[in-house]
Amino acid sequence: MSPVERSTESNKVVLCDFDGTLTPFIVIDHLYKTFAQCGLEFAERWERGEISTMEEMESTFATVTASREEMESELAKLELVPGASNFISFCQERGYSFAIVSDGLQWYIEYILQQHGITDIKIIASQIYFKTNGFHFSYPWYNPEVPLRSTSKPTIIRHYQERGSRVAFIGDGTSDFEVVGVADSIYARRKLAEYCQSKGVPAIAFTDFFDLIAKWQEF
Ligand SMILES: [Mg+2]
Questions:
Q1: 193 C-alpha to ligand 1 centroid (Å)
Q2: How much is the pTM?
């Protein structure tokens, strides 16, 4: 499957992480802390590189008894980082293709964006299915190139680059490390900023999306 729709794509693509980048904190960890009996046990093992995102999500959601509606009522309270919607409009005005690329779940990303009036955004992420016998998952963007992640961000970036696009990537955390050395430019906060620095890879540090717009560089 290719994320690229050739006829409609701009040759400049902005790919943005969701958890901790467009939101102030990691949404899926907030769901785990609020609803999972095991809390962050598997999320912490994932952070240490001991298990994959697939194992983390499946093991943690196996201990959740809340319904979709109960979780969505919690999601409805969550904010976006200041300037997030301004930045999406900024990309559209400049003719960039904008997409969210996440190692999390399309369900909560779409739900939170809708709560903030943001619709019609391309989201590349994993899927959750709410079945009577529990939660089921699928990982349409998995690639063995990055075996510990449910969505292989470098594979997606290369799909665009192979069709002649340049890709700017925005992120904050461990699930973004593999884009380093692949994306044409990087905007980073927190762990991703530290990681880029440790690798000697240039990245533009930012605080919120108003700051990011002010620091934006043509790519
Ligand atoms: Mg993140």
A1: 12
A2: 0.94
